[in-house]
Amino acid sequence: MTRPILLARITGVHGLRGAVRLKSFTEDPSAVAAYGPVFDTGGRRFEFVRARAVKAPSAGSVIAEFEGVNDCAAAEALIGTELYIFRDALPDAGLEKDEFYVADLVGLQAVAEADARVLGYVSAVHDFGAGTILELTSADTPTSVMVPFTRASVPHVDIAGRRLSVSPRAAGLEEEPREPQRPNEVPQVSQDEPVPAPRSRRRRKGRKTA
Prior knowledge:
Largest sheet: 6 strands, mixed
Mean pLDDT: 83
CATH architecture of the largest domain: Beta Barrel
Number of strands: 13
Order of helices and strands: EEEEEEHEHEEEEEE
CATH class of the largest domain: Mainly Beta
CATH superfamily of the largest domain: RimM
Oligomer: single chain
């Protein structure tokens, strides 16, 4: 797996001695420098001198210094630069069960759990604060669909086989079949009797997975 993985983006400068602000996409922002040298889309190589996470201006912010970037002008020229590493630099040994790198999920084929029909492929992975969401895109439909990345909705992930299985009903892609109501099962209510208010049932949420 030697494909490039986006690790961070340079968003601004910090001070007058060449330090830059990064938006880190690592789980631990301060670990952005732990994977060794990084490179940009043109192949230019950057080696970290030091990096430290800061709370402002947003989550994932890092103040970093690179070898050879020694003044504010050089740092300003790098604003907007995206920094990459190769997938091989990410350690697999530290992953827990049901924990995956986002980069490994993108591109997986999604198939229905019951009949293996193709639902599309994972085009993006999102986290809007309520848990991880997989965006599925299909050539047969103009719009993508969102699937919660829970054990109930996505019961099996096969990174080596480049596909995952989806339970369409648990994922909200299909409705539960309803049994037709027979005429003799409809309750008879007289005009003198109050009509009972319908009850609503709270839907249980699936457990979040990494």
